[in-house]
């Protein structure tokens, strides 16, 4: 089972593949350090430029960006009290007070070491848990795969939080986009509106760039950022190797936060923000000096950063084995796999073991490189990124988006389509419609349709064939639980609230 994991290692440590991880980590830290940008946006912009690259090179850059951006969000969180990524909100609680005391450099060093430890733990979890789970999923037939797709959509819609109706509308929009083009069985046109460019369907890259890259850039240009002349000279920095001995007492926090982050990452729709808050609250509860938390406690930075990085690779456990991403970034990464001809799900480990296991190693190396690159550069160079003119940064990103999308097929129709999706994404963002269900609907929509029709052909049109075995029945039960569970929980909460009010 783990033989393929070891055999993929020599491929990963090749110069090109390893360099891709290094570049990805640096780029991820840069993106994470800019408030308003995120790993999701960075990977969305990167995906079109990876068409001509080997799959492992492209995936290595994605893994590096993911690891780097999750730490990079701590830089403005510590220096400006502005989380660079949503998962870095908890980092502001103690990181910013430390910076006010002249300990900004120490806070960033605690953050980068904790981020690296969380990422390493997450990568090991992916290596240990994904292979045995993939062996189980290889036994799935068309009906089981269909129910896995339905379960994935239900999980994102009902477990993501917020308005369930909006989540359902977003998922339905993604499913609608997935069926545009030629019918896979009969070859008839569906929703092409007479446009020949739509016969092959809509590329997931165009959707990803439009939904995830354009709205943040618009917000970046709309909102001015006051940095108050942040510079590395104000951080109070010692070399990181001198700071490491003072962090050895955080091992319990790192262990606890890693477990929390891994668990939250596996759950569809949860994400790093929930992991960071849970880890922070649990570490504060067990602390010997909880009164110091919120006033500049380094262990608070460690607790939040280790957890929000421990959910990175673990979010890919259900994504790679079942096609169900645990986070928005994992959903975008599934799109990156698809454009390289790699279908996430049961057959991925059998058909492309070198690539999928190499991808796991790249996550591990990216987490290790975080200390080497982030620890040495964060307090000297990355703080200056906050002083970059936002119009210049936004213009560069838009230019990269236009070039990347045009390079897919060499036609302006794709650029217009991307801008259209960008407008839709901006409106959805303003109206608080979740975006991950759209991406998952696009990924799983056609997948579910294909397996549903295949299962019905096997069962000769008998719908009871979809429920004919124990595995399908278990998946149906899980789907029902995902749908009904939040409803029951909300009603119980409302009833208790009314009882207290009475």
From TrEMBL:
Residues 19-440 form the DUF112 domain. It holds the Pfam family TctA. The chain crosses the membrane at residues 12-33, 45-66, 106-129, 136-161, 198-218, 254-278, 315-339, 359-379, 391-409, 470-488. InterPro entries: DUF112_TM. Keywords: Membrane, Transmembrane, Transmembrane helix. PANTHER family: TRICARBOXYLIC TRANSPORT PROTEIN. This is C4-dicarboxylate ABC transporter permease.
């Amino acid at each position: 089972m783990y033989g393929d994991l070891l055999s993929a290692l020599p491929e990963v440590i090749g110069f090109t593949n390893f360099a891709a991880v290094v570049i990805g980590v640096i780029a991820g830290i840069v993106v994470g350090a800019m408030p308003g940008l995120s790993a999701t946006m960075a990977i969305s912009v990167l995906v079109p430029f990876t068409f001509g690259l080997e799959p492992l090179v492209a995936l290595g850059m994605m893994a590096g960006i993911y690891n780097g951006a999750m730490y990079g969000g701590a830089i403005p969180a510590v220096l400006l009290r502005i989380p660079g990524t949503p998962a870095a909100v908890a980092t502001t609680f103690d990181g910013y007070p430390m910076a006010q005391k002249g300990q900004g450099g120490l806070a960033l060093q605690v953050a980068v070491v904790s981020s690296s430890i969380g990422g390493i733990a997450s990568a090991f979890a992916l290596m240990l848990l994904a292979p045995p789970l993939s062996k189980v999923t290889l036994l799935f037939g068309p009906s089981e795969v269909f129910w896995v797709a339905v379960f994935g959509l239900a999980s994102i819609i009902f477990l993501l939080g917020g308005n369930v109706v909006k989540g359902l509308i977003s998922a339905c929009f993604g499913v609608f986009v997935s069926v545009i083009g030629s019918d896979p069985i009969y070859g008839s046109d569906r929703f092409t509106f007479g446009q020949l460019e739509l016969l092959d369907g809509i590329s997931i890259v165009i959707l990803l760039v439009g939904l995830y890259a354009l709205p943040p850039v618009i917000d970046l240009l709309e909102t001015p950022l006051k940095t108050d002349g942040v510079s590395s000279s104000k951080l109070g920095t010692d070399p990181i190797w001198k700071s490491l001995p003072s962090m050895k007492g955080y091992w319990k926090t790192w262990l606890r936060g890693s477990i929390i982050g891994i668990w939250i990452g596996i759950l569809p729709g949860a994400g790093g923000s929930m992991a960071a808050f849970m880890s922070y609250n649990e570490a504060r509860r067990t602390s010997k000096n909880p009164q110091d938390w919120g006033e500049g406690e380094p262990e608070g930075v460690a607790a939040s950063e280790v957890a929000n990085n421990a959910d990175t690779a673990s979010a890919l456990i259900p994504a790679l084995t079942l096609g169900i991403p645990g986070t928005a970034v994992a959903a975008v990464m599934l799109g990156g796999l698809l454009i390289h001809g790699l279908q996430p799900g049961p057959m991925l480990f059998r058909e492309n073991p070198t690539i999928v296991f190499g991808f796991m190693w790249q996550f591990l190396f990216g987490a290790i490189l975080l200390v080497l690159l982030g620890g040495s550069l964060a307090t000297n160079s990355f703080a200056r990124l906050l002083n970059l003119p936002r119009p210049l940064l936004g213009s560069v990103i838009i230019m990269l988006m236009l070039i990347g999308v045009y390079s897919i097929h060499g036609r302006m129709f794709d650029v217009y389509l991307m801008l259209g999706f960008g407008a839709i994404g901006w409106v959805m963002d303003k109206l608080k419609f979740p975006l991950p269900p759209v991406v998952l609907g696009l990924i799983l929509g056609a997948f579910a349709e294909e397996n549903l029709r295949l299962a019905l052909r096997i069962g000769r049109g008998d719908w009871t064939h979809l429920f004919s075995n124990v595995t399908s029945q278990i998946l149906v039960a899980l789907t029902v639980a995902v749908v009904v569970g939040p409803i029951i929980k909300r009603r119980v909460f409302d009833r208790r609230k009314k009882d207290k009010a009475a």
